[in-house]
Design brief:
Blueprint: H1 2-20, E1 45-50, E2 54-61, E3 64-72, E4 78-81, E5 91-93
Antiparallel strand pairs: 1-2, 2-3, 3-4, 4-5
């Protein structure tokens, strides 16, 4: 019975101490990212290449190719898309409404 009494007194003492001390206020949340500065490119750079059998439109953001639209003289246009940001166009899509969003590498520890 004696160990239980000792344990109970320790628990009561710790609750009494916690009730007397106030919690510190929560830190301020981080600020929002800065707004876009003038001169930054928000729209893609489009390069149109006219060939005999097709028209090729290359879409780039900050110099990185992420999508190519190919419109043949006969047939429907199709898209080649870089889905993982490695510079290789690995996805072919016939309908841009089901487009894949490029997933760029933001940070890497190489």
């Amino acid at each position: 019975m004696r160990p239980y009494t000792l344990l109970l007194s320790l628990v009561i003492t710790s609750f009494a101490y916690a009730a007397e001390t106030e919690l510190a206020p929560a830190p301020e949340p981080p600020l929002l990212p800065e707004q876009v500065q003038s001169g930054e490119t928000l729209e893609p750079e489009v390069t149109i290449i006219q060939k005999e059998e097709e028209v090729v439109e290359e879409y780039r953001i900050n110099g990185r190719l992420y999508q190519v639209k190919i419109t043949p003289t006969r047939g429907l246009p199709y898209y080649l898309i870089d889905t993982d940001g490695d510079g290789e166009l690995e996805t072919r899509a016939n309908d841009i409404t089901k487009s894949h969003v490029p997933q760029w590498v933001l940070f890497s520890w190489d």
